[in-house]
Specification:
This protein has about 240 residues and is of the alpha+beta class. The protein has 5 helices and 11 strands; from the N terminus they run βαβαβαββββαββββα. The protein has helices at about 30-40, 55-70, 85-90, 150-155, 215-230, and strands at about 20, 45, 75-80, 100-105, 110-120, 125-140, 140-145, 165-170, 175-180, 205, 210. The strands form 4 sheets. The chain has a 5-stranded antiparallel beta sheet. Strands 1-2 form a two-stranded parallel sheet. The longest helix is centred in the first third of the chain and has 18 residues, at about 55-70. The protein is globular, with a radius of gyration of 23 Å.
Length: about 240
């Protein structure tokens, strides 16, 4: 966001960029870091090496805590990679990630707040439940709304009005409800039978619901916003 601003941000000089990988090559991690240091001006991430899986497991929390306390960039975990040659060829990859690495995430304790209500937000495709909470400060920002994604999460967590809930910031960014700490006996949330915008009877796709009305004003607005967005037509000055 700072880089995209038309006006020069006062925070620009404080930006840091850490490189950690060279794409589309099947090198060892040592070779990647050496290449980055030799051929680019960028700083690299901190790397610690261990000889065995057990030694790695025994030291991972210490590595994380050391970086957390000494580093200037927020972190939420550590990536464990093999340093073997041709590791991509050996272990392969999925459509989402390579299999020669795994992420270790630190457990977040979160904060407690009160769930006041659920709003049903009409999007381009689905109608999404959005939790409305008493404002709470999480990692430097005040949060009072959080997407609940779908109906099954409401049921799985047992979300009800006035319940005390535990919140975290997933990946240090996205507000997320992870548990009900205390059920205060409030009412259950009712899943709407009609679209909150146009009143058309909703349809269901497993645990997601959607408005089938292609002329729904909110769906049209969300589609227009998407088409005008930077990653599609990039129409500047058009918003909803």
């Amino acid at each position: 966001g700072i880089l995209r601003n038309k006006e020069r941000s006062r925070w620009l000089d404080r930006l840091q960029y850490l490189t950690y990988d060279v794409l589309e090559v099947d090198w060892t991690e040592d070779e990647k870091i050496a290449y980055i240091k030799k051929h680019t001006p960028f700083n690299t991430v901190k790397v610690c090496q261990f000889d065995t899986a057990q030694e790695t497991a025994d030291n991972i929390k210490n590595v994380y805590n050391d970086y957390l306390h000494k580093g200037k960039i927020p972190v939420d975990g550590v990536v464990i990679k093999t340093n073997q040659e041709n590791s991509l060829q050996r272990y392969g990859r999925t459509g989402h990630h390579p299999n020669n690495a795994v992420a270790w995430k630190v457990e977040q304790t979160g904060v407690i707040t009160v769930l006041k209500d659920i709003e049903w937000q009409v999007g381009r495709k689905y109608i999404t439940p959005v939790a409305i909470m008493e404002p709470v400060s999480i990692q430097g920002s005040v949060v009072e709304k959080a997407s609940v994604a779908n109906i099954s999460i409401i049921n799985r967590l047992g979300l009800r009005k006035n319940a005390k809930i535990r919140m975290i910031k997933a990946n240090e960014i996205i507000p997320q409800i992870i548990a009900v700490e205390e059920d205060m006996g409030g009412d259950n949330f009712t899943v709407p039978e009609v679209c909150p915008c146009c009143g058309t009877e909703v349809n269901f796709d497993n645990d997601r619901m959607y408005c089938p009305n292609e002329a729904c004003k909110e769906k049209l607005a969300q589609n227009l916003s998407y088409i005008a967005s930077k990653k599609v037509l990039n129409i500047k000055g058009l918003s909803i």
